[in-house]
Write a structure and sequence with these properties.
CATH superfamily of the largest domain in chain B: P-loop containing nucleotide triphosphate hydrolases
Helix content of chain C: over 70%
Structural class of chain C: mainly alpha
Number of domains of chain B: 2
CATH architecture of chain C: Orthogonal Bundle
CATH class of the largest domain in chain B: Alpha Beta
Strand content of chain B: 15-25%
Largest interface: A-C, 46 and 45 residues
Mean pLDDT of chain B: 90
Shape of chain B: globular
Distance between the termini of chain C: 67 Å
Number of strands of chain B: 23
Shape of chain C: globular
Largest sheet of chain C: none
Radius of gyration of chain B: 24 Å
Strand content of chain C: under 5%
Chains: A mainly alpha (353), B alpha/beta (500), C mainly alpha (289)
Number of domains of chain C: 1
Radius of gyration of chain C: 19 Å
Oligomer: heterotrimer
């Protein structure tokens, strides 16, 4: 029996490969991506330059990279709590929307306030809105045993319609020429930018702080330990005496609050008002960011920057290469496929004999 | 006469362990050939190779003088080889008839199946209801389904992997009669066991395996249990024995009229369970699996808020409503049947597995933070005191052998100074050395005044370490028998449901 | 209310519910073998866009149907390879499939949105959907192959021990599910709409997933559930027409809320759900060799 590929379970779980495989996945995505460009009759090298290099070749571009990466990182950090606990909250998009409605609502309610408390209360309500929306699937799961994947997703559609209702209904800007958008938030309700003339805002600090806190929580605290145990085995978690239902609530609330925060940052930062399409699927893309970052807070920061680049690249590609910006999602889907696939290398050793 | 099966230089390696190392021996036609070895000796791997379930790294198998390439169970079946699995290969929610059909290589109509299975049942004394779902059957009946299903394929060779481990003494006797009749009718049976008496009683020849190697091939009638045991282990195990006196008189735990009412057909409801446990007493709960052991453990551990009536009194406190965490805080310790993924997390380090069970203890915490220093030193103590073979406490629990991990888990619980220790299947599936060590530890613990409950299918184990034994049957508990002057046949009757 | 109106409403229900039946039945078979495919939304979008684009380019319904089905086979084949051969997490892989499908369909269809076509009559696939439910029900309960599918979903280790090829069985059921989803997509863009618009599946893939749970994995119940659901969804339009005064968005969110409520209702009976769900659903199968 000559030249058989043999696949064997690894004796040692390799940390090196665990963190290497996202890079392999990115490389494979680029490799396959070049085929997509070839099919579209474009030069892969030129296209990649437009996609991945030219968007961040000036300070404006770098600022935009952080503008996109901030919500992705904040949401993905929140989601990592759920995913570590083996809870699949995939309704972050809806929680983001609710955060924008709650926090943005405060901004519209006090739209002639110039109080320095306006922005903090908007942020607070943004987080509360997201957390509130996330407690619904948590409640349904713990009380009625309902699959959280489907409920959190259904609630996303509901949240989008609620936002739609507000911006074409009660909160429509009377001076907005009938467009489905609210009036702008007052200056005191706008998120401060870090540099004049650029859109990068203080949300970046929040992302870094949440990353730092998450790192401590996951590695040093009993709560983080509980999440990991429950993620590995719910039976072991019960044996340990952990209240699994409470953990479900906590993780949903944390991830919902993060998504709500991100939503509020979007509307009070770059956008400045409420309208229909406040998020280009940040809530869904953050799922990929979380996995690509290996649910590791620092990994998530890095992967959020990479995925943010696919957003910018897709915009430039639409502009300069005349290909639809949806190509960004294609890359995101591919990278997740490859990441999951390369996980195989973690568990198995492949050799040819 | 030509051998029906011949193993030639079979090798099989798994990460970190050589399961079969140059295994060669022959099996004679129309005999009962036993393969003996302790847990992990490589018996199961070898027969799985014969059944096409596992591919060997090297070596070959000769069947009826022909070189056989057995790539899958299907080819094994076409060569006349069938297998009755230790953990069964049945489909719980499907009916007996559907299970039988799935086991047959040829296509068959329902009516033909009925007549064919009836013939087999009548001939060997099985009793099957074809329309009942497997989930409604007792363990013994399930085994009957497995055997009948194998026989429907008209096999020449029948492999039985530890078939007695789940049966009552009565059922074992019946099974042995059936096996002997099958062999008289022309079948060759390969019988795998680690129980010495059974092998002496049943087999014609025995191959003894140790650490993946064949250590001897014998004709059974020249042997006795002692000689087999010595050859199996390579050393003599001095049997521990409970010194049968309890030095204390106060009750530690009492269960009063405990009944459960689950609607789930996969569970066995407990029926008015009563018992009292003294300080320093070891109380054994025997019985065939599936008679309420899981549910009793659940009620004692309270992981799932299983609803029940009656009272659980621990040291004059009613603990009915107390959570697992609260019960552990009252110094009750638990060792569950399933090690990986229940009483230990295989993906986590040994230190983290200390915290898993000891997170109620303040010395391992600093507020909400984990105190890794005290955890690591506790883990080190467990490893040292309980002979756990591991390079460090950073090793993942899943890397340990079954025996080592069980010593670690039981050591972890014992070192927390419990007043009551509840164990389920404490020595199931582990090597003889670890088994002896654990039994000795439990007896010592009881002499220090700790009360112990052992739920086990292994009657020998209970007879060795317990003061008293009761039997669980369909959710009811028999009265307790004193081990010192125990009547084994009475115990056997209890296990079959004949309480007095 | 006159008869014509009732027939009209029933007709609309029939036409709008069929994609849910198609995708739902496909997923039901996949899940019966123990695999959870959350990628229906992506599969349906891809089926819709390939069907539509092929029709625009060739003007031929057969080619349109053919390429739509091919897209389902390829995409579900990729999913099958990942979850079966590489043993990836089924939930994450399904999500990746959905995101990939959203992106790729939008990319392919970008230049075609708004292109007018002559739609195919929906009744072929409506009739097919009823036959499909009948055949799948018969297949699962009465044939040996169906029994094997159930056995694999019930206990893959036992199935393997008896000599059944678990991976091959699951490849077939996953691809069957993929083809049915792409058919559902084809139906929406070529028969129902008929047009292409980015994201036009609008959550129907997820609703089909919920229907499988609602049906407790029984084909006929899935059919009934889909039509109840379709009825409720149509009712909201009519309520609006009858002058019930609520903002339009609240009517629009009704299907999603209805799904949510039904799911809660079904899953609250924990034991029943446990008894009817395939035991190996979403449990990775590792062949030990």
């Amino acid at each position: 029996m000559a030249y058989l590929i043999s696949i064997k379970l690894r004796e040692d779980y390799s940390n090196f490969i665990f963190y290497l495989s996202p890079l392999v996945a990115v490389f494979l995505t680029l490799f396959f991506g070049s085929f997509i460009f070839l099919i579209l009759d474009l030069s892969p090298i030129e296209s990649f330059k437009i996609f991945f290099i030219s968007p961040i070749s000036n300070s404006y571009g770098i600022s935009e990279l952080f503008v996109k990466a901030t919500p992705l990182a904040i949401i993905a950090l929140g989601l990592s709590y759920c995913f570590k606990n083996n809870i699949y909250n995939i309704g972050a998009e809806g929680q983001l929307t609710m955060g924008a409605i709650f926090g943005g609502g405060i901004g519209l309610l006090f739209n002639n306030s110039s109080s320095i408390l306006l922005l903090p209360s908007m942020i607070l309500f943004g987080a509360i809105g997201g957390a509130f929306w996330a407690t619904i699937p948590a409640l349904l799961k713990t009380k009625f045993n309902t699959n959280e994947i489907l409920t959190s997703l259904m609630l996303t559609y509901v949240a989008l319609f609620i936002l739609d209702y507000f911006v074409v209904g009660p909160w429509k800007d009377p001076d907005g020429y009938g467009l489905p958008k609210s009036m702008p938030f007052p200056e005191s309700g706008r998120l401060p930018v870090l540099f004049d003339g650029l859109r990068i805002h203080i949300g970046v600090y929040f992302a870094i702080i949440i990353c730092f806190i998450s790192y401590i929580v996951f590695n040093k605290t009993l709560f983080g330990f509980k999440l990991r145990v429950s993620g590995f085995s719910s039976k072991a978690s019960q044996y340990a005496g952990f209240k699994y239902k409470n953990l479900i609530f906590y993780t949903f609330i944390i991830s919902g609050a993060c998504a709500g925060l991100a939503g509020l940052f979007e509307v009070s930062g770059p956008i400045g008002l409420l309208y229909r399409d406040i998020s280009p699927n940040y809530g869904f893309t953050a799922i990929i960011v979380a996995f690509l970052g290996r649910l590791n807070p620092i990994g998530i920061i890095l992967s959020s920057l990479l995925i943010a680049l696919t957003y910018l690249g897709a915009e430039d590609a639409q502009l300069f290469l005349k290909i639809p910006s949806a190509v960004g999602f294609v890359f995101q889907g591919l990278v997740l496929f490859f990441l999951l696939g390369t996980d195989f290398l973690n568990k198995y050793r492949i050799s040819i004999k | 006469m030509q051998p029906i099966v011949e193993f030639q230089n079979i090798n099989k390696e798994y990460p970190g362990v050589v399961a079969n190392n140059n295994v060669s021996f022959k099996i004679k036609r129309q005999t009962i050939h036993a393969i003996l070895g302790e847990n992990g000796a490589g018996k199961s791997t070898l027969v799985k190779i014969l059944y096409g379930h596992v591919k060997p790294d090297k070596g070959q198998i000769i069947i009826n003088s022909d070189l056989a390439t057995i790539n899958s169970p299907t080819t094994a079946q076409s060569l006349g080889i069938n297998m009755v699995f230790q953990h069964f290969s049945l489909f719980e929610s499907l009916t007996v008839a559907e299970n039988l059909i799935l086991g047959m290589s040829e296509k068959i109509s329902l009516s033909k199946l009925k007549s064919k299975s009836e013939t087999i049942c009548n001939k060997y004394g099985f009793n099957l209801n074809l329309n009942s779902p497997i989930s409604a059957l007792s363990v013994g009946q399930r085994q009957s389904v497995e055997i009948v299903r194998s026989l429907l394929n008209n096999p020449e060779i029948l492999i039985m992997d530890e078939p007695t481990s789940v049966l009552t003494p009565e059922e074992i006797k019946k099974l042995f009669k059936i096996i002997k009749k099958l062999v008289a009718d022309g079948l060759t049976v390969i019988f795998i066991s680690h129980k010495l008496d059974e092998i002496i009683n049943l087999s014609d020849h025995v191959t003894i395996m140790r650490n993946g190697k064949v250590v001897s091939n014998l004709t059974t009638k020249n042997e006795d249990p002692e000689s087999l045991g010595y050859k199996m282990l390579g050393y003599k195990v001095s049997k521990t024995k409970q010194i049968n006196n309890i030095n204390y008189s106060e009750d530690v735990l009492s269960l009063n009229n405990l009944s459960s009412y689950s609607q789930d057909p996969f569970t066995t409801n407990l029926n008015k369970i009563n018992f009292k446990l003294k300080k320093g007493q070891i109380f054994g709960i025997a019985g065939v699996a599936g008679n309420g052991q899981k549910e009793l453990m659940e009620v004692l551990l309270n992981e799932n808020d299983l609803e029940f009536n009656g009272n659980i009194i621990f040291k004059n406190i009613n603990i009915n409503k107390l959570s697992t965490f609260q019960r552990k805080s009252l110094s009750i310790s638990y060792v569950t049947e399933q090690r990986l993924g229940h009483s230990a997390v295989p993906e986590m380090s040994l230190s983290e597995n200390i915290l898993l069970s000891m997170n109620h203890k303040t010395e391992f915490k600093r507020g909400d933070f984990i105190n890794f220093d005290t955890i690591n030193s506790y883990a080190n103590d467990v490893i040292k005191n309980f002979n756990v073979d591991t390079p460090s406490f950073n090793v993942k629990a899943g890397k340990l052998s079954g025996g080592n991990l069980q010593k670690f888990i039981i050591g972890r619980e014992i070192m927390s100074n419990p007043e009551l220790l509840i164990l389920s299947q404490p020595t199931w599936g582990i090597d003889a050395g670890s088994e002896a060590f654990i039994k000795k530890s439990l007896i010592e613990l009881s002499q220090r005044g700790v009360s112990i409950i052992i739920i086990s299918h292994d009657l020998d184990e209970l007879l060795e370490v317990c003061h008293n034994i009761s039997v669980l049957y369909e959710g009811s508990l028999s009265k307790s028998l004193n081990v010192e002057n125990i009547d084994i046949s009475k115990l056997g009757k209890y296990m079959g449901g004949l309480f007095d | 209310m006159n008869l014509d109106l009732i027939i009209g409403i029933l007709n609309i229900v029939l036409i709008s519910t069929t994609p849910l039946v198609l995708a739902g039945i496909g997923e039901l078979v996949t899940e019966k073998s123990g695999v959870l495919n959350l990628g229906l939304e992506g599969l349906m979008l891809m089926g819709a866009v390939t069907g539509f684009v092929t029709l625009v380019l060739t003007g031929n319904y057969f080619f349109s149907l053919f390429f739509s089905i091919i897209s389902g086979i390829i995409l579900s084949g990729i999913f099958a390879f990942l979850v079966l051969n590489l043993m990836t997490n089924q939930i994450a892989t399904g999500l990746a499939l959905t995101i990939f499908g959203i992106g790729l369909s939008a990319m392919i269809g970008k230049n075609f949105s708004g292109t007018p076509i002559d739609g195919l009559s929906p009744y072929y696939l409506i009739i097919f959907s009823f036959l499909l439910v009948f055949f799948v029900s018969y297949f699962l309960s009465k044939t040996k192959s169906g029994l094997i599918v159930r056995a694999v979903g019930e206990n893959h280790n036992s199935a393997y021990a008896l000599g059944y090829n678990v991976i091959k069985t699951r490849y077939l059921t996953i691809i069957f599910g993929g083809v049915m989803s792409s058919l559902a997509g084809f139906y929406i863009s070529v028969c129902y709409a008929p047009m292409w618009q980015e994201g036009m599946i609008a959550g129907r893939g997820w609703i089909a997933l919920a229907l499988v749970v609602f049906a407790t994995w029984k084909p006929w119940r899935l059919l009934v559930g889909a039509y109840i659901f379709g009825g409720v969804a149509i009712m909201q339009m009519n309520l609006q027409a009858f002058g019930v005064k609520l903002p339009g968005q609240f009517f629009n969110m009704m299907p999603y809320l209805a799904t949510l409520i039904v799911l809660v209702f079904i899953s609250s009976n924990k034991i029943r759900l446990k008894l009817s769900a395939p035991s190996c659903l979403n449990i990775p199968y590792e062949k030990n060799s």
